[in-house]
């Protein structure tokens, strides 16, 4: 029986950090966990970083990535290593995986199907070959340390030590017409899929279905690995390498790890794979296709003898499934940690209003701190040059329009979290601004005539003060808007929209409130129920920008948040017309009058249209759900537009 030892490595890479990315790969190659591996799979574009964006156009990026590739060759004796990098070949730039073995670059495999939906924009930078390639690549940057003058470039069925294996790079595994089906007709045993598959709520199950079904229909072993962490600022990668065989998930690595790399090990046998093929495999392509796939023989070698390979792993299958609210907690916490670490700042400053959004941000920063210390040790923040006691600083800025309950919630939450808390009154600053403008306008501003201006000036006066505090601390300023507010422009530019990062704008207000309810119900294993959460859930969301006697409420200013979310999903997520949107919303909300729903849909569309300029200026955000509104990565919409 020929045992096959497979390692799938997840990495926390950083775009353009060539030395750091290379060192992470080498650390994994030198670790005990990969010592006996026959095959070691690394994520997509891990040498350059996946999120280089227009820096991919620079020749220096290709050259530095190539130098990193050559530096890996001494670590490839007795095994096959797959590692990703950009390659410029014959006038085109390709997203490639290099196949390394025996101190040689055995082949370069270009990605065929480029991810170009949602947050991905690969066709801007890379060329799609549209069909299989069988070519030769002559390196422009030298081959020091390698033992060949040209390298096979294209799509091959590789053979080594009797094992037949092939590659599908991330999106190549998500399309309907896949190379793996054709490889399977020639006796494929192992399919390796290096990915840069961003986190989104519910996406993990889709990955599992894709690769488990591929393993069943072709009777092969499918191996997927992924990036982990907040790589470039907006996308969060949840790791979660896994292996499927016999149509089932066999083993899965840890997700949302704060470590820089994790290794998942899996052992199978050639006899087991071939036996399954003999029993279960069915042909599904024409015979001429089978003959058209080039086979590349990589030769044979003896691997080093190491005992207990199965136990030399840093991650195991997770016994417990995470709820969407727990995934959200882990993802945002990881995103906040990497954003802090990679930006080399000292912590976060937050304008704490006593409402749900700012409270959620504070709690998530606290969760980030706990997760980081649990995984990386109590000294992690000291090692990063961060004073843990100063990691989160909060400020409540009150006016006569703020209620006692919101100040109490803000203060209570800060005490519960043990973070630095301050409270100041800003009425005099607001009044100074009003007096200056009234002297110019030669009239007094009134709520009857200047409602919006009088609301916004309070938010705008708060902005320079919280920025001042953040600058004094050497902190990033957290902006607290959610996706629902972004969709209708329910935010003050240069006011509450100010910030370095907006960690929760990838989810709706409805989701945030449900997240709190889930915590209070004791269902979120990562966050305990707190008195402050109970208090804020008994308080209706309000901006507190109008006089208290008006009892301002967000849902009166807008519409019920569940309805807003449903309209937003119909209009943005599903792309429905006004008429189709009305039909869908009417079915979802039969207790509302149809005319009322029609007016709310029309109102939403007008607000969405007129608020695009605001979304263009919002702080960077994390992509967390199936769709988002960040025009940089998710939903691109004209600033000037008209509605039918």
UniProtKB/TrEMBL annotation:
Span of domain CN hydrolase: 4-275
Catalysis performed (reactions): deamido-NAD(+) + L-glutamine + ATP + H2O = L-glutamate + AMP + diphosphate + NAD(+) + H(+)
Binding locations of L-glutamine: 197, 203
Cellular component GO terms held in the UniProt record: cytoplasm
Keyword terms, alphabetized: ATP-binding, Ligase, NAD, Nucleotide-binding
Enzyme Commission number, as recorded: 6.3.5.1
Domain of life: Bacteria
List of catalytic residues: 44, 111, 170
Amino acids binding ATP: 480
Gene Ontology terms for molecular function: ATP binding; glutaminase activity; NAD+ synthase (glutamine-hydrolyzing) activity; NAD+ synthase activity
Family membership: Belongs to the NAD synthetase family. In the C-terminal section; belongs to the NAD synthetase family.
UniProt-recorded name of the protein: Glutamine-dependent NAD(+) synthetase
Organism from which the protein derives: Leptospira ryugenii
Gene that encodes it: nadE
């Amino acid at each position: 029986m020929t045992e096959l030892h497979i390692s799938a490595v997840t990495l926390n890479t950083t775009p353009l950090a060539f030395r750091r990315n290379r060192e992470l790969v080498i650390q994994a190659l030198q670790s005990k966990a990969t010592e006996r591996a026959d095959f070691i799979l690394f994520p997509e574009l891990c040498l350059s970083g996946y999120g280089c964006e227009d820096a991919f156009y620079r020749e220096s990026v290709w050259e530095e990535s190539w130098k990193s590739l050559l530096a890996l060759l001494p670590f490839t004796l007795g095994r096959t290593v797959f590692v990703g990098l950009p390659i410029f070949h014959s006038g085109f730039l390709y997203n490639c995986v290099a196949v390394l073995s025996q101190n040689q670059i055995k082949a370069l495999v270009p990605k065929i199907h480029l991810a170009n939906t949602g947050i991905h924009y690969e066709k801007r930078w890379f060329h799609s070959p549209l069909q299989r390639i069988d070519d030769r690549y002559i390196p422009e940057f030298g081959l020091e340390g390698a033992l060949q003058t040209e390298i096979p470039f294209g799509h091959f069925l590789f053979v080594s030590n009797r094992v037949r294996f092939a590659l599908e790079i991330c999106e190549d595994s998500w399309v309907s017409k896949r190379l793996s089906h054709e490889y399977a007709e020639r006796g494929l045993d192992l399919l390796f899929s290096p990915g840069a598959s961003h986190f989104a709520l519910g996406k993990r199950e889709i990955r599992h279905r894709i690769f488990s079904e591929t393993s069943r229909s072709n009777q092969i072993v499918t191996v997927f690995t992924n990036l982990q962490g907040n790589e470039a600022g907006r996308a969060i990668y949840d790791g979660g390498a896994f292996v499927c065989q016999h149509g089932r998930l066999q083993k899965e690595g840890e997700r949302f790890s704060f470590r820089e790399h994790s290794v998942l090990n899996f052992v199978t046998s050639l006899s087991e794979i071939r036996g399954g093929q003999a029993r279960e495999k069915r042909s599904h392509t024409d015979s001429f296709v089978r003959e058209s796939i080039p086979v590349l023989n990589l030769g044979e070698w003896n691997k080093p003898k190491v005992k207990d390979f199965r136990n030399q792993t840093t991650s195991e299958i997770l016994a417990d499934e995470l709820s969407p609210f727990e995934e959200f907690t882990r993802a945002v916490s990881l995103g906040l940690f990497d954003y802090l670490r990679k930006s080399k700042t000292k912590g976060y400053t937050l304008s704490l209003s006593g409402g749900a959004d700012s409270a959620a941000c504070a709690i998530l920063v606290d969760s980030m701190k706990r997760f980081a210390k649990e995984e990386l040790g109590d000294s992690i923040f000291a090692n990063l040059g961060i004073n843990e006691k100063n990691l989160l600083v909060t400020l409540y800025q009150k006016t006569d329009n703020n209620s006692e309950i919101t100040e109490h919630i803000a203060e209570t939450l800060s005490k519960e979290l043990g973070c630095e808390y301050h409270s100041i009154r800003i009425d005099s600053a607001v009044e100074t601004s009003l007096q200056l403008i009234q002297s110019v306008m030669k009239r007094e501003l009134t709520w009857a005539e200047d409602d919006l201006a009088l609301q916004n000036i309070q938010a705008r006066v708060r902005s320079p003060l919280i920025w001042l505090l953040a600058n004094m601390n050497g902190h990033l300023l957290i902006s607290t808007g959610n996706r629902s507010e972004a969709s209708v422009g329910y935010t003050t530019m240069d006011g509450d929209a100010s910030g370095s990062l907006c960690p929760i704008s990838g989810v709706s207000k409805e989701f945030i409130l449900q997240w709190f309810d889930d915590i209070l119900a004791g269902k979120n294993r990562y966050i305990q129920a707190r008195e402050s959460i109970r208090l804020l859930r008994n308080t209706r969301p309000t901006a507190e920008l109008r006089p208290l006697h008006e009892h301002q409420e967000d849902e009166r200013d807008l519409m019920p948040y569940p309805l807003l979310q449903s309209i937003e999903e119909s209009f943005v997520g599903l792309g429905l017309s006004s008429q189709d949107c009305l039909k869908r919303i009417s079915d979802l909300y039969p207790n509302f009058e149809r005319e009322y729903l029609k007016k709310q849909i029309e109102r939403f569309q007008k607000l969405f249209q007129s608020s695009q300029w605001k979304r263009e200026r919002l702080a960077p955000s994390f992509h967390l759900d199936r769709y988002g509104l960040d025009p940089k990565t998710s939903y691109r919409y004209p600033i000037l537009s008209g509605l039918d």
